[in-house]
Automatic annotation (TrEMBL):
<keyword id="KW-0472">Membrane</keyword>
<dbReference type="Pfam" id="PF01679">
    <property type="entry name" value="Pmp3"/>
</dbReference>
<dbReference type="InterPro" id="IPR000612">
    <property type="entry name" value="PMP3"/>
</dbReference>
<protein>
    <recommendedName>
        <fullName>YqaE/Pmp3 family membrane protein</fullName>
    </recommendedName>
</protein>
<dbReference type="GO" id="GO:0016020">
    <property type="term" value="C:membrane"/>
</dbReference>
<keyword id="KW-1133">Transmembrane helix</keyword>
<comment type="similarity">
    <text>Belongs to the UPF0057 (PMP3) family.</text>
</comment>
<feature type="transmembrane region" description="Helical">
    <location>
        <begin position="25"/>
        <end position="47"/>
    </location>
</feature>
<keyword id="KW-0812">Transmembrane</keyword>
């Protein structure tokens, strides 16, 4: 996980997970609409997962 991905996940979480698949983008986008913090946390968790 690069520093640019971390910064992008703080600014706009759905953009940070673009290459992780459609499901991840949708989940992060919905959480981001519910609140900024849940979207950021979800994006960081998805980016930190080595299996995806």
């Amino acid at each position: 996980m690069s520093i640019w991905r971390v910064l992008l996940s703080i600014v706009c979480p759905p953009l940070a997970v673009l290459d992780k698949g459609c499901g991840s983008i949708i989940i992060v986008f919905i959480l981001w609409l519910c609140g900024w913090v849940p979207g950021v946390i979800a994006a960081l968790i998805i980016l930190n997962n080595p299996n995806r």
